[in-house]
Design brief:
The structure holds two protein chains of two kinds.
Chain A (H helix, E strand, L loop, with lengths): L2 H26 L3 H21 L3 H19 L7 H22 L7 H6 L7 H30 L1 H6 L4 H23 L4 H13 L5 H26 L3 H18 L3 H8 L3
Helix pairs in contact in A: 1-6, 1-8, 1-9, 1-10, 2-3, 2-4, 2-8, 3-8, 6-8, 9-10, 9-11, 10-11
Chain B lengths: L3 H6 L10 E12 L2 E12 L3 E5 L6 H9 L6 E6 L5 E4 L13 H6 L6 H11 L14 H13 L5 E5 L7 H18 L2 E5 L3 H7 L2 E6 L1 E6 L1 H4 L3 H7 L16 E3 L5 E3 L7 E3 L11
Parallel strand pairs in B: 3-7, 3-8, 5-6, 6-7
Antiparallel strand pairs in B: 1-2, 1-4, 8-9, 9-12, 10-11
Helix pairs in contact in B: 4-5
Main location (chain A): membrane
Function (chain A): Involved in the high-affinity zinc uptake transport system.
InterPro entries (chain A): ABC_BtuC-like, ABC_TroCD
Chain lengths: 270, 282
C-alpha cells in the first residue's frame, strides 16, 4: 500500500476515534448546530494563523474557544433564540474567514482543502498533531465524563449535587474546539460535524449504555474512514466527502436492520 | 471531626439562625422587568416539613431555585448552613431517547456512595425492580421515586422537592406524601417542597408557606387554611375526593365532649398584616 494511503488511514481513524465519543455528547446535548458554528469559524482561525504567523492548529483552537465564550455570553440575553444566534455566528464567521483569506497577500491558501479536507495529503507532521491532539482530547473527555454526563441529563440537579457546571461545559467547548482543529485536515471544516454526529447517531441503536454508544461511535467512524478512503481510491471521488457518505450509508444500514434479535444480542452484556 | 471553619463562621451573619438549614431574608427577584419574588422571609429547620403553596406564577419554583443557589436573588440574602448537603428533586425530568442510560447509571450520576446504601434507599422508595431498565421507559410516578432515591443517596440534610407528586395518580399521591413524612422521621432531614396537592400537603406538612410573590401567610396547616389571605387565593371549596386526607379543625371539643366553634384559638401562625388589602394575581 502506498505511504500516503497509510497516513490517510491512520490520521482519519485517529480523528474518528476521538470524534465518536465526543460526537455522542454533541448528540446527547443537542449541540450539533453549535458544533457546526464552531467549525465554520475555524476558517477565520486559519486566516489568523497565516496573518500573525502562528501555528494554524493553535489559532483555530483559540478562535473556536473565543467564539464559544462569545456565544455563552450572548445566550444570557433572551431576545434572540440560540439557533438564531448560531446562524448569525456560523455564517458571518465563515464569511469573515473567506474575506480574511482573500486579504492575505503572498500566501496562496488551498481553500478547498480547508473547507472539504485533504486527507490524502496528511503529512507526518500532521499525523503527530492529530495524535497529540487526539490523545489530549480523549484524556480530557475521560476526566470530564461523569460530570459531563450528569449535566447532560439535568443541569440544575447536577449543580445542586456539586458539579461545577460552567467549568465542565467550558471544558466541553474546549474539547470541541480541539477536535475541530485536529479534524480539519481530514474532512474539512464544513464536514467536521458530520464525523461527530453520524457515527454517534448510528451507534445509538446498538447501545444500552453511554460508554458503549461512545465506543460504537468510534468504531463506526473508523469504518466510515476506511470505507470512504477505499471508495475514493476506487472511483476517484473526493476523500473527505466520500468518508461522510460512507458514514451516512452505515447509519442508514444500521437503522434499517430488522433489529430486534440483533439488538438483544448486542445489548445483553456478555 | 468538628470543622474549625464552622466555629469561625458561626459568628458570621451569613449563617442562618440556629437550627435552620436554609433561610431567606427579605429575598427579592426581578427578572425581565417583572417582579417574581418580593421580600420573602422564610426558613427550613432540620426535621421539619415546610410546604410552599401558591397559585400558578406565584414564584414557588423560583424561590426553590434561589434557596438552592441556582438563581441569584436581586435583593435580600439567602443563608445556608455551612457544609449543607442538599437532595434535590426537580419538577420534571425527561431524558432524551438518544441517550442510552439505565436507572442504575442515572442514580450513580449523583455521586459516589457505598453499595449497601443503594439497596437500602431503593427498598425505601420501592423502585429496586427498575434498576436495569432504561430511564426513558419508566412511568411518571416511577420517575418521581427514582428522583427521590437519587436525592436520598446523598444522605441529605435538606430535601428540596419540586412537586413530588406530579404525574402520580390520586391514590399514589397520598402514598408519596406519607413516604416523605417517613423519610423525614428516619433521616431527620429538613424537607422543603412545593405542591399543588393542597389538601394532601396540609396533612403532611409541619408548616405551610402561602406564596404569591410575597409571603401571604405562614404557619401550621390548619391555621393557614383558615387565613383570609389563603382563602382569597384558593377559595373555601375543597374537592370532595380530598376530604379523606384533610382534617379541618374548625371546631373543638370542650370538657364534656360538646362541639365548640373555633374562634381565633389554636396553634400559632401568622398572617401578614393587612393581607386582605394585598393584590393577588392569579
Amino acid at each position: 500500500m502506498d505511504d500516503f494511503i497509510v497516513r490517510a488511514l491512520l490520521g482519519g481513524m485517529a480523528v474518528a476515534l476521538v470524534a465518536g465519543p465526543l460526537g455522542s455528547f454533541v448528540v446527547w446535548r443537542r449541540m450539533a448546530y453549535f458544533g457546526d458554528t464552531l467549525a465554520h469559524s475555524a476558517l477565520l482561525g486559519v486566516a489568523l494563523g497565516f496573518l500573525i504567523g502562528l501555528n494554524v492548529n493553535l489559532t483555530v483552537v483559540i478562535l473556536c474557544v473565543t467564539l464559544a465564550l462569545v456565544l455563552m455570553l450572548l445566550q444570557r440575553q433572551r431576545r434572540l433564540a440560540t439557533d438564531t444566534l448560531l446562524g448569525i455566528l456560523a455564517h458571518s464567521s465563515l464569511s469573515l474567514g473567506l474575506v480574511a483569506v482573500a486579504f492575505l497577500e503572498g500566501v496562496r491558501i488551498d481553500l478547498m482543502a480547508y473547507l472539504f479536507g485533504d486527507i490524502l495529503a496528511v503529512s507526518h507532521e500532521d499525523l503527530i498533531w492529530i495524535f497529540l491532539g487526539g490523545v489530549l482530547a480523549l484524556g480530557m473527555l475521560a476526566a470530564l465524563w461523569r460530570p459531563l454526563l450528569a449535566i447532560t441529563v439535568h443541569e440544575d440537579l447536577a449543580r445542586v449535587e456539586g458539579v461545577r457546571v460552567t467549568l465542565v461545559s467550558m471544558g466541553f467547548m474546549l474539547l470541541m474546539a480541539l477536535v475541530i482543529a485536529v479534524a480539519m485536515k481530514v474532512v474539512g471544516i464544513l464536514l467536521i460535524t458530520s464525523l461527530m454526529i453520524i457515527p454517534a447517531a448510528a451507534a445509538r441503536r446498538l447501545s444500552s449504555t453511554p460508554e458503549r454508544m461512545a465506543l460504537f461511535a468510534a468504531l463506526i467512524g473508523c469504518l466510515a474512514v476506511a470505507g470512504g478512503l477505499w471508495g475514493s481510491l476506487t472511483w476517484d471521488t473526493p476523500a473527505g466527502p466520500s468518508i461522510v457518505v460512507a458514514a451516512a450509508l452505515l447509519f442508514a444500514v444500521i437503522f434499517s436492520l430488522p433489529g430486534a434479535a440483533l439488538l438483544r444480542r448486542l445489548r445483553t452484556p456478555s | 471531626m468538628f470543622p474549625l471553619s464552622r466555629l469561625i463562621r458561626s459568628r458570621d451573619d451569613a449563617v442562618p439562625a440556629r437550627g435552620a438549614l436554609v433561610a431567606a431574608r427579605q429575598v427579592g427577584l426581578v427578572a425581565g422587568g417583572r417582579r417574581i419574588l418580593d421580600g420573602v422571609d422564610m426558613a427550613v429547620e432540620a426535621g421539619r416539613i415546610v410546604t410552599l403553596i401558591g397559585p400558578n406564577g406565584a414564584g414557588k419554583t423560583t424561590l426553590l431555585k434561589v434557596l438552592l443557589g441556582l438563581l441569584s436573588p436581586t435583593g435580600g440574602q439567602v443563608l445556608r448552613r455551612p457544609g449543607l448537603r442538599i437532595g434535590y428533586m426537580p419538577q420534571r425530568i425527561q431524558v432524551d431517547e438518544i441517550l442510552p442510560i439505565t436507572v442504575r447509571r442515572f442514580l450513580g450520576l449523583g455521586g459516589r456512595f457505598p453499595k449497601d446504601r443503594l439497596a437500602r434507599v431503593l427498598a425505601e422508595v420501592g423502585c429496586a425492580h427498575l434498576l436495569e431498565q432504561p430511564v426513558q421507559s419508566v412511568s411518571g410516578g416511577e420517575m418521581q421515586r427514582i428522583l427521590l432515591a437519587r436525592a436520598l443517596l446523598r444522605e441529605p440534610h435538606l430535601l428540596v422537592l419540586d412537586e413530588p407528586a406530579q404525574g402520580v395518580d390520586v391514590a399514589g399521591q397520598g402514598e408519596v406524601f406519607q413516604l416523605i413524612a417517613r423519610l423525614r422521621d428516619r433521616y431527620g432531614c429538613g424537607v422543603l417542597m412545593v405542591s399543588h396537592e393542597l389538601h394532601l400537603v396540609m396533612a403532611a406538612a409541619d408548616s405551610v408557606i402561602c406564596l404569591n410573590q410575597h409571603v401571604c401567610c405562614t404557619g401550621q396547616p390548619d391555621v393557614v387554611s383558615r387565613d383570609p389571605a389563603y382563602l382569597k387565593l384558593f377559595g373555601k371549596t375543597m374537592p370532595a375526593g380530598m376530604v379523606l386526607y384533610t382534617h379541618h379543625h374548625d371546631h373543638r371539643h370542650d370538657l364534656h365532649g360538646d362541639v365548640v366553634a373555633f374562634e381565633g384559638e389554636g396553634p400559632p401562625g401568622r398572617g401578614c398584616p393587612g393581607s386582605e388589602a394585598h393584590r393577588h394575581h392569579g
